[in-house]
Each structure stands twice: as C-alpha cells, then as structure tokens.
Design brief:
Length: 448
C-alpha cells in the first residue's frame, strides 16, 4: 500500500482492545489518577470519563521495543503520559503518538510524524494536536483521531486514511494484552493465508491455503547473551563443540574450522561483550531445540513461521511489505558492506545496511506483528523435517511435517541473503546436527 495524495485526508489510529474494563470510578477499587482522564468543567460527580489504563500501559515501555524513543516535551502545557512510535512497514513512515492531559483538565492526542507535507495536517512546532471530543463505552473520539476497542485481549493499531470513497487501512502493530502474555513474545492471532509462491522454487509450490491456530512467537532471534545464560545454567555443549567445529569465512572460502562454536563470529573472531545482542549462530537444530525445551517453549513450525513473517492474513511477499529491496534499509542482507569482505557474492547494489555479518536484534523496523529480523540477519531453524514435496500433501490445518528425514527446515535467510531470494516463502534445510556461521533460531509457544 502507498498513501495517495489526492482528495480529503484524515488520519485515524484505531486501537482495538477487549475485556479490559473501560470503567469509571464506580468500578475501581482505588481512585484512579494517572490512568484516568477528566474533562474541564465537568461535574465532579461525573468528572471521570474513562479508564485509559490499558492505553497508558502501552506508553510505559512495553510496546514497540527499540521503537520507543526518548520523550519529547510537548509545546503546550500539561502532563504528558508518554510517547511511542508506530511504524508503517509498507509505506516506511514513522508516527510518534503522545497522550497529553493539559492543565485545564482537557485531553489531547499529539501526533508527530516523519513524512513531510502530509496533506490535510496543519502542523505547529512539528506536531499535530487532536483534542478529545467525546467518549462512549468503548470508543474515544478525538478531533480527527479515534481510539476504539474490540476482540479478546488484543490491541490492534491501524492507520486508516481517506474518505468513504477512497479508504485504506493498514495494520501497523498488534499485541496481546492478557495477563499471561509471555515476556518478549507477541501473540500471532489465528488466521488463514496462502502458503508458498507460484513464482518461487519448485519446493515453494503448489501455493496452498493454510489455517493457523493462535500462538506466541519471540519478538527477536535468540541472542548471544540469552544462549550464554542457558549454557551457564545447564552446562550444555553444542554440536559444533562435539563435531570438530563449524563453518566460517577464512578470507578465501567458507570452511569448517576446528574450535569454532557459538562463541565466535562468521570470520572466526571471538565475540565481544558489546556483541551480546547479536543473534547466536553456529547452532544445530538439536541445539536450538534444547534451548526451547529449557525455556518451556518450542521451535515454530514452518507454516507458523511463514504466516508470522508475512503478517498473517495480510500475506505480504516480504517481511517488510510487498516491494523488493530498494534503497530503504529494512533488513540485514548481502549488501555493499558484505561484498567488501566476501567478494564475488551476489548482493543488492546500492544497498548498505551498515553490517557485514550479524546485527544486534531489533536494529531494523519490525514487521506488522512486531517481529524483528524475520528477513535477514540469521537463518532460523523450524520444527519440521524437510521434504521438498511436502506441500503437495500437507494438511490445511496447522501443518507440520513429522515424517523423519536427515534434514530440518530453515527459514528467513541471513546477512548473506541474495537479491531475489528474500521472499517470506523461501525454504531451505540442513542436516539436523549441522551448524553454520549464519544459522540461529527463535522460539514459539502454545497458548495455554
């Protein structure tokens, strides 16, 4: 989707959330202060117009991870509840939202956007202000911006642009808000999508409908620090340590080298403490599975992984949207940096993501589910055994290939991702006990 520049424009952020008790003081055990908004001049008996506790929770650091920016002072007097950024992965636009209670008791939403000359917005000192006009049982109407709730334990944030005749809606963030929500994971809601790619490799065909139950997925690939904590707690020894090393770039070729394991980078250099947030690599499927089991999680199935990478029912071709790589930096792939070290490797000309090998997780904008690095940075192991012909016989509901073979599925590509091979449907595999310089993983978890 691209935002049109014609006709009458307005912006609506729709935040959907259910079963959260948008209640007044009568339902509260204790008086609300920070989480309750009042209108100027209201009768004291009815001054409380709504409990925004669920919304304030978003502003207190849980949402958007590294997308949360430092606070910026609003140019009008009042109490700023907080600020966070929305990222529209398709249009590559950032919006920063601020909830503000002003000294006169009124309430406003401030929006600071990062696309110049947006038609229909009148800016003042870099922000647009939307005063709160009316509040119903489940919707807060600002002047040109709406917050609404629906659906169980789920917040959806949409950009809705255009009038009745030309209206575009784009999901930019989704988050589970139930009390049992696992940390550093997001809820991937149940849905259906078309798996595979008719223009891809034979193993990506036939394109077929798949239904996926809801599940949780790690927001980022497992990091060096996280895997190190696992090793410290369990004394776990990886397959690379037991199998005479792993594969690295020697300066001339990719070669298996004795002594190389998860503690080393793709060039064979020992990782430093400053690199603790890079994805852990040089891991086999067995290693990844052992970590997941210890964390009371599991590896995602191949179908779950592709569904999550595509943004669910949105069905994007790439994790970042439908457009192929251009000059906008959206992922860590084979680029100008990489080919300076590994010459003659295919790369996207003019693209520079700033990293030769691994990048700290979350260095690039998340996809529409809030998942980071679903394309590039590190290949990710999946639960399934690999079979190039599996799509021709896979079930529609929650497919998972449990027919044993020597190989397991890997998805997502890595920092050596080549042009034309970054689509979310792309499949590959490796021997279950093999490890490689760019192979890591992330965990999934069933909803209990």
């Amino acid at each position: 989707m691209r935002f049109h520049r014609t006709g009458k424009f307005f912006l609506t952020f729709v935040v959907a959330c259910a079963a959260l008790g948008w209640a007044g003081v009568a339902d509260a055990q204790e008086p609300h202060t920070k989480n309750t908004l009042t209108l100027a001049g209201a009768d004291p008996a009815t001054a409380v117009i709504g409990d925004f506790g669920w919304l304030v929770g978003l502003w207190e650091g849980e949402a958007f991870g590294s997308q949360v920016q430092e606070m910026w002072a609003p140019p009008t007097a009042g109490t700023m509840v907080g600020t966070f950024k929305l990222f529209d992965s398709d249009a590559v636009i950032f919006y920063e939202l601020v909830l503000l209670t002003e000294v006169d008791g009124s309430v406003s939403m401030l929006v600071k956007h990062f696309q110049p000359d947006f038609v229909g917005w009148e800016e003042k000192d870099g922000f647009v202000e939307f005063p709160l006009v009316r509040l119903t049982e489940d919707t807060a109407y600002f002047d040109g911006l709406t917050l609404a709730r629906s659906g169980p334990d789920l917040i959806n944030v949409y950009l809705v642009i255009g009038g009745d005749e030309e209206r575009e809606e784009h999901l930019v963030y989704r988050r589970h808000v139930g009390g049992s929500h696992p940390p550093d994971m997001v809820l991937i809601p149940a849905g259906s999508f078309m798996m595979g790619d008719a223009e891809g490799q034979d193993m990506e065909k036939p394109v077929h409908a798949v239904d996926i139950d809801a599940f949780y997925m790690d927001t980022h690939e497992v990091t060096l620090e996280e895997f190190g904590n696992f090793v410290d707690a369990t004394n776990y020894v990886t397959d690379a340590e037991n199998n005479d090393g792993s594969i690295i770039w020697t300066g001339e070729a990719w070669e298996k080298t004795a002594g190389i394991n998860w503690r080393f980078d793709a060039a064979g250099n020992a990782h430093t403490a400053e690199e603790k947030n890079q994805p852990v690599t040089h891991l086999s499927w067995n290693d990844a599975n052992a970590y997941c089991q210890r964390a009371e999680k599991r590896l995602p199935t191949e179908a779950e992984w592709e569904y999550a990478a595509r943004g669910g029912e949105a069905g994007y071709k790439f994790a970042w949207g439908n457009e192929p790589l251009g000059t906008d930096v959206v992922a860590n792939v084979s680029d100008e940096n990489f080919v300076r070290v590994v010459p003659n490797w295919p790369y996207t000309e003019g693209y520079d993501d700033g990293y030769t090998f691994g990048a700290p997780v979350g260095s690039f904008a998340p996809n529409s589910f809030g998942l980071y690095d679903m394309s590039g940075n590190a290949w990710e192991w999946c639960a399934d055994y690999f079979d190039a012909q599996y799509y021709s016989r896979s079930p529609r509901k929650n497919p998972r290939n449990d027919e044993p073979s020597e190989r397991r599925v890997m998805r997502g590509n890595s920092w050596d991702g080549r042009p034309g091979l970054m689509r979310a449907s792309r499949r590959t595999s490796d021997l279950q006990s093999n490890s490689y310089a760019d192979t890591g993983f992330r965990c999934a978890k069933d909803i209990e």
